[in-house]
Design a protein that fits this description.
With about 280 residues, the protein is α/β, with parallel strands linked by helices. The chain is built from 8 helices and 7 strands. About 40% of the residues lie in helices and about 15% in strands. The protein has a 7-stranded mixed sheet, with helices on both faces.
Length: about 280
Amino acid sequence: MYGINSYVAIGDSFTEGLNDHRGDGTFRGWADRLAEMLAGDEPGFQYANLSLRGKMLDEIMDEQLPIALELKPDLVTLCAGGNDVIVPGADVDAIAERFEAGVAKLRAAGIPVVIFNGPDTKTLSVMSVLRGKVAIYNTHLWAIAARHGAKMVDLWTMEPLHDRRAWSDDRLHFTPDAHRRIALLTAEVLGVPVTEDWREPYPASTEPATWITSRRSDLAWTKVHLLPWIRRQLRGESMGDGLSPKRPELAPLVPLVPDNPASIDLDMRGDVRGNATAS
């Protein structure tokens, strides 16, 4: 449908779908949601999601990119480099060069590519210190998209993502509603008709405006999320160690009986692996 009969998603936890949980504990995420839109009623549509939490850019390029090139789908979405950029002392220019090499390989193979820039972290306490590095990386990504004819999903200017309710408690991954909105924006970039508007603002909040910036919140976040991340970095470990991609091969979408009869979901054939928590 829409000229896209096969779709491969590559990347890290953002594309894997953290923290958009299904009822069985697996992750759905914007890429699965986009695949559902692309499939429509077309039984021949196939989808693979090779992304995995914690993956660094070089791992994505070495492990996932070759598979995408071999599969030669009608569409590849690529979001990578975020885990590299947040590491203290990281060379953003060098990260962008390695990212561009991957985009160039996909485009040279004649594969349409959609990439994503980083969201604005201005409203997130502590994480706002990354704003400058993300902005520099985003500038590179816009140039890469222009040079290679890739489409861009602009998360930085996506207004709903400036609301703290779009973010999970870890201040790194998105909520299910944010994943829904990102899927809608990606479909819009691809020219795929949608029935919902990702621009719809969140309702007025009744919580104190200082909730995300409170000292108590920062201390809790540091203990639960930041310190474990630092320990993993020091040990050379990753949240994805021992896990496998949820959809390692192109396969059709199949219906799933929803947990809530009032809602409708789609499961992915072969997506039977449980996922660890994102802490």
